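ok posting inputs for the pyridoxal-5'-phosphate job
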Amino acid sequence: MFVGEFGARLRTREIEEDIPTRVNAAVDFEGVRGGVTEAISEFLAATPYEGPRLVMDLDLVEQAYRRLHASLDGAPLYYAVKANPNPQILRRLNQLGARFDVASRGEIARCLELGFDPGRLSFGNTVKRPSDIAFAYANGVDGFAFDAEEELVKIAEAAPGARVFCRLLVEECDADWPLSRKFGCAPEMAERLFLRAVELGLKPIGLSFHVGSQMRDPSGWRKVLTQAAALWRRVSLRGVRLEMLNIGGGFPARYSEGAPPMAFYGARILDLISEAFNGHPPKIIAEPGRGLVGDAGVIEAEVLLVSRKSDDDPKRWVYLDIGKFGGLAETTDEAIRYRILTDRDGGAVGPCVLAGPTCDSVDVMYERDPVMLPLGLKAGDRVLIPATGAYTTTYASVWFNGIEPMQEFTVG
Ligand SMILES: Cc1ncc(COP(=O)(O)O)c(C=O)c1O
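and the output
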């Protein structure tokens, strides 16, 4: 995989510069160290294995938050709660001064139960139930996304006078996990909707977009920033004074392909914003999810079976006790390629297709491009899957095949 702006595979050194020092060297993998901190290793060693488990190191979440916050010159960061809604993570981020991008009533309720200031929550889902809008507004949330006239009407009825921001459509998307098509509207429509929002008594405050999740190339922000700046100028000429540009999420975690250091993202994106806005950048906010929690978590799972489909099949099938339905949904279309660490690393390896434990043939991972795993791997071995802190615990089925959900623990 190549990162466009660099035109070459990222060098390990660039990646290593940004990784924490508290990393267990025993789990090096292809030159990219795993993010399996001592605290995580100690927890795994001390706690009996009862099934797949995700261990999150809160100190790594804190480091990621501090790095991104600094690299975006202190711009407010609204953590996308959907990435990992674990209360301990939310608490740590709240202590650090984070704000929260919430997608549903459930996420709002969780933040409120934790005692967070509702004024620091932003309802970023463009598709909301009227009763959830009313719940949010009654509880002090005052920032609602929209990308359609019908949504504006809902907001005006359920949250009269609320502050609203328009999500722009991002048509071309090079992100590993695209979020294009489904969300946002074209700039011309956005312009009309801003005027409609004013007519409806709402307060248009800004523009948002999402370049797609796991956007490894910072120049992926360029095109939409140019569109956003042009739209910003047009609506301002029509009397709508916007005050914030929400540059969304998209900041990457370190999977097999690696990613540039976080500091690089901030600097590059700030440059692109300045360029698009002719040297007069607006106030920005960001909504990172994966970039804050992805690298902070490690899943431990167990090998249930290693087999071949025929005696001369060069590929082995490695069946794990976790698969697409139990937390590894983002392996769909091989979009996210996790690193797999085993105690047998360092010896001879061969190609393996991974599969989950359910009786569903969709529950297969990396069949198109198999992963190389030690030849000695066998049932009963444990594997570590680093950088699994985002979109795993909740992005899973409910008791499919009678399988209990993955457990989550925090350390640090
Ligand atoms: C509105 C919104 N903001 C932020 C995010 C977080 O994105 P990421 O995890 O790529 O940072 C998402 C992810 O789906 C989202 O839908």
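notes: Residues 80, 83, 101, 124, 179, 210, 213, 248-251, 287-291, 390 surround pyridoxal-5'-phosphate (CB under 6 Å). The first strand starts at residue 53 and ends at 57.
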